[in-house]
């Protein structure tokens, strides 16, 4: 995401939630952001699958 710490990213995400957000909403947002960051780290490390491989693997053509 950026050079911000995990705590800074979490605080920013929570501040963007609406005032009536529940704790469950907050947890879902943080979980979602973690999954995105984990995927981006995997991509940076070269651990990706090409579109063609996905199509072949799932027999989509």
What does this structure look like?
This protein is mainly α and 61 residues long. It has one domain. Helix content is 64%, strand content 0%. It has 3 helices and no strands. The protein has helices spanning 6-15, 23-44, 51-57. It is elongated. The model has no long low-confidence stretch (mean pLDDT 94). It comes from Roseisolibacter agri. This is Addiction module component.
Number of domains: 1
Give the mean pLDDT.
Answer: 94
Could you give the distance between the termini? Answer: 35 Å
- Outline: elongated
The largest β sheet comes out as: none
**Count of DSSP H/I helices:** 3
Beta-strand percent range: under 5%
Q: What low-confidence regions span 5 or more consecutive residues with pLDDT below 50?
A: none
Structural class: mainly alpha
Instruction: List SSEs in N-to-C order.
Output: HHH
By DSSP, the count of extended strands is 0
Query: What's the Cα radius of gyration?
Result: 16 Å
The helix fraction, in percent, is: 55-70%
Protein name: Addiction module component
């Amino acid at each position: 995401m950026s050079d911000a710490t995990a705590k800074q990213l979490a605080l920013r995400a929570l501040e963007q939630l609406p005032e009536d957000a529940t704790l469950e909403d907050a947890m879902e947002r943080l979980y979602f952001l973690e999954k995105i960051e984990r995927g981006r780290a995997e991509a940076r490390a070269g651990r990706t699958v090409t579109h063609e491989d996905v199509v072949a693997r799932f027999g989509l053509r």
